[in-house]
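Collaborator request, handled under Task 6.
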Amino acid sequence: MSSFWSSIFLIIISFQVLSLHVGLSNGDLAQELPMNMTYHNGPLLTGKITVNFIWYGSFTTSQKSTLTDFIASLSPGSSNTEPSVATWWNTLRKYYENTGISFPTLTLGDQISDIYWNGGSLNMSDILPLASMGPQQNAINVVVTSADVGVEGFCVSRCGLHGSGSGSNTNRFTYVWLGNSSTQCPGQCAWPFAHIDDVPSITALVPPNGEAGTDGMVVSFASLLVGTMTNPFGDGFYQGEPETPLEAATACPGIFGKRSFPGFAGILLVDSATKASYNACGVNGRKYLVPALFDLSSAGCVTTV
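Structure tokens returned to the collaborator:
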């Protein structure tokens, strides 16, 4: 079942590279993207939801805090500086308003570290047991694999995925898996902070939190978290077929700012001191790059800048 919600972030990058190779215009891209988002009448997350991290492998304190601060940044008022992660996240309220389901509150929950039960190689079948180490109800359990851990399909067909545990829709937990691509495939899973493979002429952006692999994980995490919110069990909001759904973030591939096109993330904010590119502010002075979201009101992709 988890394959239904596999992240298509890797596919997004591949589509961008393909677009460069075959010379698609912006108009061609707009025609290719289906501009509707259908609700399939399934349950969505609601109430108080904890986001729990299962860290598989070795991580620095900075890597961990970059992701956990992102969760804290989702809360209204978490940053006094706009554009903010909280304002970006608030776009999803329209999805809930269309269903009558109350928008959930996400808070940072447990963290489980120093796990390395299967060494540096994991199969897809290992992800759900790892995710099951977190709470089993009202939870999003996030499995993060370090740069030295190889995961089946990572860099080949996905940069991460989201899914759900067994049980009824009312009490089963949801989960996300994402990996650090810094040493395995930064051009695929850490773009735009790394060169797209085979297209070195495109300049990589400076990552706002200091590491291309970590900031690449934030982009994947943001997209997967949005998918978990709007299509947690495979029968929520999505475009296309249920086996290969385009969700609220993945329906807007490679778009981070205005005037984006394949291989160009868009016009972004740039930190005057570090020259890092970003489009959203968070807690503790954090700056992040978050993907465009499909806006139900305008039936199009919207960015923070």
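The cover message to the collaborator said: "The radius of gyration is 18 Å. Residues 1-34 have pLDDT under 50 and may be disordered. Please let us know whether this matches your experimental observations."
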